[in-house]
């Protein structure tokens, strides 16, 4: 009889091996046999658990998304205000467990796979939709002190959220194409600087509307 929990442990080992194989060989060249060997199981058992290489990639992506969500949840617990919660999103995105070469390579494979695979595309859309929604909410509350409503201020908050998310994605892509040790602190600093500029610009615009800051031509 199999030991209790053995299947779960083997599944996790296969997912970890998938991340490792993608990083070292690329998704196209990483075979189920190679992944199974790295995980210490047979190729037949790997296919028994996941059915196909594509299903294994999808499961790996889902696992990394769960890890990212858990990291964000833990950081948000100590975030007391909207600005801190925005920093929690940034910090989670560049945490040691996420912003490492192997995981970055896996995410790059997901984006490439999403061009032709509807399920991968769906998972990425859900991830991005939630990311933008969360950031938009926090930016709106930060800038206005109110829950988000429709209109210009909501649109400004969404632009800031989309810019923040795009910068995070861009830094991840840069890391995927670079060599050497990941510089998470530098990446976080770049995104935090962008957030501060967005907040300052929004506050200056608000002050001008209220007549508190003269325009350039005055």
Summarize the structure.
This protein has 218 residues and is mainly alpha-helical. Helix content is 76%, strand content 0%.
Question: Can you walk me through this structure?
Answer:
76% of the residues lie in helices and 0% in strands. The mean pLDDT is 86. The N and C termini lie far apart (83 Å). It is built from nine helices and no strands. It is elongated and about 70 Å long.
Please render the helix and strand layout as text:
Elements: H1 6-25, H2 32-39, H3 43-50, H4 53-76, H5 82-93, H6 101-114, H7 118-144, H8 152-177, H9 184-209
Total helices: the number is: 9
> pLDDT below 50 for ≥5 consecutive residues: which ranges?
none
Radius of gyration: 21 Å
Q: Which structural category fits the helices and strands?
A: mainly alpha
Question: Can you give the mean pLDDT?
Answer: 86
Distance between termini?
Answer: 83 Å
Main beta sheet: none
Q: What helical percentage do the residues reach?
A: over 70%
Q: Could you tell me the number of beta strands?
A: 0
How do the helices and strands follow one another from N- to C-terminus?
HHHHHHHHH
State the shape.
elongated
Q: For this entry, what is the oligomeric state of its chains?
A: single chain
Residue share in β-strands: under 5%
């Amino acid at each position: 009889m199999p030991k209790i929990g053995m299947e779960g442990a083997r599944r996790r080992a296969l997912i970890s091996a998938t991340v490792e194989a993608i990083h070292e060989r690329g998704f196209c060249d990483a075979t189920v046999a190679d992944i199974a060997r790295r995980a210490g199981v047979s190729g037949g058992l790997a296919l028994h658990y996941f059915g196909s290489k594509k299903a294994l990639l999808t499961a790996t992506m889902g696992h990394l998304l769960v890890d990212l969500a858990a990291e964000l949840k833990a950081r948000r617990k100590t975030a007391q205000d909207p600005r801190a919660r925005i920093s929690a999103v940034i910090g989670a995105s560049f945490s040691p467990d996420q912003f490492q070469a192997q995981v970055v390579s896996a995410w790059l494979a997901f984006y490439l796979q999403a061009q032709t695979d509807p399920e991968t595309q769906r998972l990425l859309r859900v991830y991005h939709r939630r990311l933008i929604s969360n950031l938009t909410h926090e930016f709106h509350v930060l800038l206005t002190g109110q829950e988000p409503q429709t209109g210009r201020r909501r649109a400004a908050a969404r632009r800031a959220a989309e810019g923040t998310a795009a910068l995070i994605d861009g830094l991840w892509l840069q890391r995927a194409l670079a060599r050497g040790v990941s510089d998470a602190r530098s990446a976080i600093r770049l995104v935090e600087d962008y957030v501060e500029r967005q907040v300052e610009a929004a506050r200056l615009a608000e002050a001008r509307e209220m007549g508190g800051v003269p325009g350039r031509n005055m």
